[in-house]
Specification:
Elements: E1 3-14, E2 19-31, E3 36-40, H1 47-54, E4 62-67, E5 70-71, H2 75-78, E6 81-84, H3 96-106, H4 111-124, H5 140-151, E7 158-162, H6 170-185, E8 189-194, H7 197-203, E9 206-211, E10 214-219, H8 221-224, E11 229-237, E12 250-255, E13 258-263, H9 266-278, E14 282-290, H10 293-303
Parallel strand pairs: 3-8, 3-9, 6-7, 7-8
Antiparallel strand pairs: 1-2, 1-4, 4-5, 9-10, 11-13, 11-14, 12-13
Length: 317
């Protein structure tokens, strides 16, 4: 067990009346060695607050957390953690190589080891060609990749990434996804938060869903998603006069003779496709649709809508 929390809770007091707002409530969570764990939730759900408590940047109101069986915060636990904050900030006139060397020095990495490791990490994140370019000239994706490199500069066993895909274009997201998979191949344990659910389905061994400060679900993605079929889409090539054979389906798109039709279940799709083939159609594809993580997440949000954002509590007296 790499990470374990017990009833971890954070209450903020806000405003002149010092209203009590529960950002995280009674969080019980564990992360196992060697896995990629996705921590997902809507904006304001408590993801970043949880990570800041785990990193020792803020203190919990109550509850405990342990990393490698060392309590948080402690030097023993921090020594084996690499961390990428949600909005990393750099000295923009440093080059990528200088910034990484600076982070290595802050992490206590010896000089000879630091020079070798910085070169290896710049290559790992694809920044060798831009290593001597000032950071103010880096794109958002390049800055995120440098952030991952600095999180790895002390060769940690546990890597925590807060919204690593935030603000990235599709190419940047793919680059960061590839980096996370490479970290797992190198034996690292990765914990990352995000609200980009397709990335979680692609990457994660397990996922935790936090809504309104409460951990609602934890498990492997295939365990969380409903196995029920959510419909079938058939794409066919058929002339307009033969489309009566698709009764019972809903036309999703059409382009000339190419038509995509959605059916509520497999039986309806099979019957309509057989009728269409008998009328001279050609079947191009038949795609069953099952629940995705996004479907599951939206369902959970709908179920929690009355209490998704708990009302602030006023302190007695």
């Amino acid at each position: 067990m790499i990470l374990r929390t017990e009833a971890l809770t954070k209450v903020f007091e806000v405003g002149l009346r010092r209203r009590r707002v529960h950002a995280v409530r009674d969080l019980d969570l564990s992360v196992e060695e060697g896995e990629i764990f996705g921590f997902v939730g809507p904006n304001g759900a408590g993801k970043t607050t949880t990570i800041k408590m785990l990193m020792g940047l803020i203190f919990p109101t109550r509850g405990r957390a342990f990393i490698f069986d060392s309590p948080i915060p402690s030097r023993a636990s921090k020594a084996r953690i690499g961390y990428l904050p949600e909005n990393p900030s750099y000295y923009e006139f440093l080059t990528g190589r200088e910034a990484l060397a600076f982070f290595a020095r802050l992490s206590g990495v010896p000089g000879d080891v630091a020079r070798r490791r910085c070169g290896e990490l710049l290559e790992l994140v694809g920044l060798t060609g831009a290593a001597d370019r000032q950071l103010r000239k880096y794109s958002k994706g390049m800055q995120q990749r440098l952030g991952i490199a600095q999180a790895l500069v002390s060769d940690p066993a546990f890597v925590v990434l807060d919204e690593p895909m935030s603000g990235l274009d599709p190419i940047g997201r793919r680059e960061v996804r590839d980096l996370i998979l490479e970290l797992k191949r190198r034996g690292k344990t990765v914990f990352f938060s995000t609200h980009i659910l397709p990335d979680v389905e692609t990457l994660c061994d397990r996922v935790g869903v936090i809504i309104g400060g409460r951990l609602r679900d934890v498990g492997r993605i295939e365990e969380l998603l409903s196995p029920r079929l959510r419909g079938v889409e058939a794409t066919l090539s058929l002339p307009p006069q033969s489309r009566a054979a698709l009764a019972g389906g809903r036309i999703v798109s059409q382009d000339g003779d190419r038509v995509t039709v959605s059916f509520p279940d497999q039986a309806a799709a099979d019957g309509a496709v057989r009728a269409a083939l008998g009328a001279g159609a050609s079947l191009l594809s038949l795609t069953p649709h099952r629940e995705t993580l996004e479907d599951f997440f939206l369902r959970r949000l709908e179920e929690d809508r009355p209490g998704a954002a708990p009302e602030p509590e006023r302190r007695a007296g």
